User: What shape does this take?
Amino acid sequence: MTSPLPRNARKGSGVADANDASVVTASAAGATASGERTAKSIEDRRRRLLTFFSFGGMLFIWFALTGFGFGTGSALVSPVFLPSPGAVVERFVILSTTGYQGSSLLHHVAISMMRFGIAFAFCIVVGVGVGLLMGMSLTARALLDPPIEVTRPIPKLALLPLFIIWFGIGELSKVLVIISALFPLMSISAMQAVRGVSLRKIQAAYSLGASRWTVFRRVLLPASLPGIFTGIRVSIGIGVTMLVGAELIATSDGVAWMALSAADFLLTDVVLVGVLIMAAIGYGLDRIARLIENRLVHWSGKDG
Amino acid sequence: MGLHLDPSPVPGPDPERRLSSGPAIDSTDSTDTAPLQTVDLSAVRADAKVQIRQVSKQFGVGTSAVRALDAIDLAIMPQDFLCVVGPSGCGKSTLLNIRTGFETPSTGTVLLDGQPVSGPGAERGVVFQQGALFNWMSVVDNVAFGPRARGVSSRKARQTAMEHVEMVGLTGFEDRYPYELSGGMQQRVGIARALANNPEVLLMDEPFAALDQQTRELLQEELKRIWRRSGKTVLWITHSIDEALFLATHILVMTARPGRIKASFRSSFYEDPDPLVTTSAAFSEAKRTIVSLLRDESLAAQRQEGVRRG
Assistant: This one.
């Protein structure tokens, strides 16, 4: 790829085009360019304002339920069930300085990210690889698809006790249970992506004298990227969910474990800190994936 | 599928030859100066660019088998521009796919410069209908794909690509992506991409089918110019009789399935420098000849469809 154009720039111009008609009728002809910009920025501001209200509303309800920080007496809900935003922030500061149950907060976050990261990386390399292979070769599909399809309906958390028996209570079992959930997702989406590549493009490549390897590297792989990315982004959500499951038993560290164990002591503020950290991880990873996706597969959904 | 209508095999040694000099054509003006003349293209010619010999294609086996092509004999001479017209489902595209090497014929052989064809190759450039461009590559990378795939250095390939981008009038758009271009411009990229490999033969499968009439006519003119300049041999599949008459040196009319050659012509409208030749009386007359030939076949094709669906 030479220079992937910024997708947002193009999206922006698309919006301007769509608004063109209304702009021309609304503003005097001749001021179209600036009118366009104004209309666009008004629309942008309106949207940002709505987002702000939706977030602000949620926060407001949280503040309201917990008594706006005027002491616990004015709270509608007991802090045992819902601590105030201030208390959660305070707890977060305490946790990040003194840690939780003998380990620093950073350690808990890092160990969770590591479990997720290893499983995720493995599935991107091997899962997507297997998927590509299944998409290209009928032999590979006949060999690999049945085991994936047959084991797919099994709730993967149910495998955790089995993994613990087989592989002990170490990191391996936890990583494996996350892999078991993400692997079929990524491999099947990669396979579907390859199978969805238009025959015409493949034929075009062969007719231009491309070898099988060139067709794979320069046609099949890039053409499947949008589908592969869909699998990756779905996997992020599921992966964070599986992290909670993996830290459910036989562990004493990790963000999810922190939240789960704090619940035993009714330390609701710690639970909320854990939940919010996991939400932030999931959201952050999704944003990163989307950013990479936008740069890498700018052509997605636009056939030439 | 048991109801498949299997047309009885045509008796006689050489049905297409007999048909190609049939009465339908003789009724038209067939003097030497007529722009559309019956001609026999089925002979084996040693100097043919492309020689198709007794090529047939059957899909499936047993009672559900469909015969798409029936014993085609055809010689395409160097620098010929051969347009194939026929009713839908007559095996036009099958013929082209066999020519490109995407499909192997059930019987018969295809020779390019006397050498048998097996599998797709760079010496036969293909221009497809829309949707065959690599939309993750810029225009110039699309056009450079062929040279790159054949091992030309990226610098050289880019240079070749730029020349062809210029040839199809897309200078200034080389760094755009296909999805940023109009349908007509996309097909120009497709043509440039096929030509960049400097193929012996250009195979075109209804490349302008999805374009609007105006764009189509302009591109036809331009294609004629490019063809004249490059001197390529072209095999062009189309539904449009106007397009065939406007572009082709030779026109092949095919029958309904199984596809056979119903008639073949030499046409000289392509020599006319006037792009409005399509509105002349002689053009209408020629069009009439081909339309009447095609009409029967289209009706037959429709009946086949009916039988197969019913």
Summary: Residues 1-31 of chain A have pLDDT under 50 and may be disordered. Residues 92 and 273 of chain A are 6 Å apart (CA to CA). Chain A has eleven helices and no strands.
